[in-house]
Design goal:
single chain, about 450 residues, alpha/beta, Rossmann fold, Transcription Regulator spoIIAA, six-stranded parallel β-sheet, five-stranded mixed barrel, about 20% strand, globular
Length: about 450
Amino acid sequence: MATPRTVAFHTLGCKLNYSETSAIARLFESSGYLPVKFEDGADIYVLNTCSVTEQADRECKKIVRQALRRQPDAFVVVTGCYAQLKPHEIADIPGVDLVLGAGEKFRILDYVDDLSKAPGKGMVHAGEVREVNTFTSSFSFGDRTRSFLKVQDGCDYKCTFCTIPQARGASRSDTVENVLQNARDIAARGAREIVLTGVNLGDFGNGTEVIEGTRPRKEALFADLIRELDLIDTVARYRISSIEPNLLTKEIIQFVSESQRFMPHFHVPLQSGNDKQLRDMRRRYRRELYAERVAEIKKVMPHACIGCDVIVGFPGETEADFLETYEFIQQLDVSYLHVFTYSERANTPAAEMPGAVSTEERRRRNQALRGLSEMKRRHFYSEHFNTVRPVLFEQHKNPTLLSGFTDNYVKIEIPFEADKINTIAPVRLGQLSADGESVMGFYPENIFSL
């Protein structure tokens, strides 16, 4: 019997990419390939890329070199957002054999059998992104207790800093029926938590115009989808990954507050607390609306966790503008920040805007907001000391501990008990861990010994 060919995967970027890598891995498995760990060496390496920042581009080249050091004769396939945006640039990377764009990545098996280690540039199959108009469902599954389920892809928004519409095409969604079936399948595989993902998740069903009141509702929107998902009793938990503030309606907030399965945790991109930058970014809201959404969440779910994305150093952002953003966020009842340093991206309007901020200043502003994020997170954690919340237990890098997250996304560390992994149970929250990154927890039998 012939030894099966081995394949290894590496994913850069967002949760959406992780769900798609898992779907591609299942394609290989169904065709007789044997998935192996990246570090073990493989016949074929598949790298699923991101291109949100310049760092992600550099990371792609680094991973290719690492793969070939482990297995010099391996075939290297690169797909994902970077592959759609700059396919010929990637094909020039030494050792890359095949580059697949957005419309080709799920047909990867049609191409790998024809790979050969010919000298020179790798093969490129990357069509025009405007031709990418079908939705391919995917979800992650592996050694995690949760699964990332893609329900929406692409984006019709025109944010001036963003290349995602160029990389993934127009907004499109799965059907409600298929999402429900995928959720049931994920639950049957043993995952306790499903994270709903998409490029513009709240635009499920192309609902932006409905939510903004410019067209009537004719098909299922995101609010309708989550109501249907909530009825599947084999799924213990859902999380909403990231949702634009203009699409996070009061209907959705109220529903989550009443649901037993959707967790009180929202990640809502802000990008700037200054209306001038929001306008220049072509965001579809102003800071007043963002503050209203945060207040609405906290009114019905005081314990909810709220995270937000912020970009520093956008063209034209003065020191006064940055301070306005800092003070706005400081006053917001949010729990943590994801801070991104603006980087110029080819073929975006922002790259041509005047008022470039120096690299040193961008770095300083990033550090300032990261410090604010740390203060926000520690304050949010401290509000829940000596309370009891349900935790989904997971493996920890320290074998004497388990890790986990409460329903409202407080990270927990607790003494290891093997039978607890992938279960949900009440935990009393103690004090911050030594590194301040999590909260020490106590099992129910120890709850009243504090």
